[in-house]
Amino acid sequence: MKNFSNRYIYTFSVIMVVLVALLLSFAAQLLKPFQDKNIEVEKKQNILASIRITSTVADAVQLYDKYIVDSYVVNNKGEKVEGVAFKVDVKAEQGKPADKRVLPVFVGKLDNGTLTTVVPLRGKGLWGPIWGYISFEPDMNTIYGAVFDHQGETPGLGAEITTDWYKEMYREKKIFSDSVTFCSVTTYKGGAKKGDVHGVDAISGSTITSKGVEAMLQDCLEQYKQFFITNKK
Fold first, then answer.
1. Which residue stretches of 122-206 are H helix?
2. Cα 87 vs. chain centroid, distance in angstroms?
3. How far is it, in rounded angstroms, from Cα 41 to Cα 35?
4. Chain-wide mean pLDDT for the chain?
C-alpha cells in the first residue's frame, strides 16, 4: 500500500474541496432560473386560490394573467407608492418600521365582473413561519377567500390551516365592526358563537397555531387599515 505524504494529502483535499464547491456553485446557477420560476408559479397559484380560482402548475400563469387585473404598492397611510407588488418581500418589509414598509396589493376580477382585493399575510406558527393571502369583497371588509401555508406545523394539527374546511371558515367574515373600527378575525378555542361575523373556530389540539393565524391577520391587515377605509365601496 502506497504511503502519501501529509503535503500530498492536504493538497489533494484542497483541490477536491475547491472542485466540489465550483460544481455546486455551477449547479446552483444553472438551476436558479428553474427555482425562481417554480417560486413565481407557486405564488401565483396562492394568489389565485385566495380568490377561489383553482390552478395547476401548467395553467397558473395563464389564469393569473386572466384574473389578476392590477397590482400596486401602498404605504400604511393607504397611499400608492413606487414598487412592484409581485416582487415585494413581505418578510423583509416586516423587519422595517411600520411607516417605512411597502405593502403589496393585487386586484382580482371574477367571472361575474366583481373586483376583489388581495393582500399577503405572514406570521409565526408553533414550529416556524406561516403565511398566506386573503381577498376582500368590494366593501373592503368582507373576506371573499383565504389561503394559508406553513413551514413545519404538525400534520393533523397545526398543518390543518392548509385544508379547505379551515380556509372556508374565513369566508364572509368581517374585519371592521363599523365603518372605521378595525377588529380583524378572532379565533375561539371550543368554537366561535353561531353568527359571529368576526370569529372562527380554533383547530382542536392546536391552539398555538390557531392563535398564530389570528395574530398574523391582526398584524398584517392592520397595516392596510387606512387603505381599506379609503377604498371602501
1. 164-168
2. 13
3. 10
4. 92
pLDDT tens figures, 49-105: 999 999 999 999 999 999 999 999 999 999 999 999 999 999 999 999 999 999 999
Say if residues 199 and 188 touch (Cβ distance below 8 Å): yes
> What phi and psi values does residue 180 have, to the nearest 5 degrees?
-130, -5
3-state secondary structure of 139: coil
By three-state DSSP, how is residue 63 classified?
A: helix
**pTM, entire model:** 0.85
The full length of the chain comes to 233
State percent of the chain over pLDDT 70: 97
Sequence-distant (6+) residues with CB within 8 A of 205 are 157
Phi, psi of 151 (to 5 degrees): -95, -40
Q: Which three cell numbers mark 1?
A: 500500500
Supply angle C-alpha 112, 220, 118, rounded to 5: 15
> Which amino acid is it at 105?
V
Query: Roughly what angle, to the nearest 10 degrees, separates helices 6-50 and 60-67?
Result: 40
Distance CA 53, CA 30 (A): 32
Beta bridge partners of 80: 74
The vertex-120 CA angle with 182 and 45, nearest 5°, equals 140
Task: Give the rounded distance of the alpha carbon of 216 from its chain centre.
Answer: 10
Grid coordinates belonging to 225: 387599515
pLDDT of residue 4: 62
Pairing of strands 186-188, 199-201: parallel
